[in-house]
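Changelog note: in this version the structure field was regenerated for every chain. One regenerated record is shown below for reference.
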Amino acid sequence: MINKSVESLLLQLGERLKEARLARNESQELFAQRLGLTRQSYSKMEKGSPQTLIGNWLEASSILGRLDDWQDVLAEKEDLFAKFEKKSGKRQRAGGRRKRKTGRGKND
């Protein structure tokens, strides 16, 4: 049994895939061929089937130019507190140079 939140996410992914395919004016048959799937298997993918292999989702994303969107999936979450501690632990110097008065110019 698949949990409801996973089921809901798969349905959303399938719907987004369908919308992207239709925006490209491609049939299920053509898109399935590009993925190396049968039309029936591709149809299940659009319907959010949990049996769809992750490789098929990645390949579909690649075809749609969205493969980079997967880069953050399961990536280590950034700990903002640790980042702040690390940054505030080091003393930073002020940037730029200050102008000194030399007393040699016309306006000095």
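Spot check on this record: Residues 4-23 form the longest helix (20 residues). The helical segments are 4-23, 28-35, 39-46, 54-63, 80-89.
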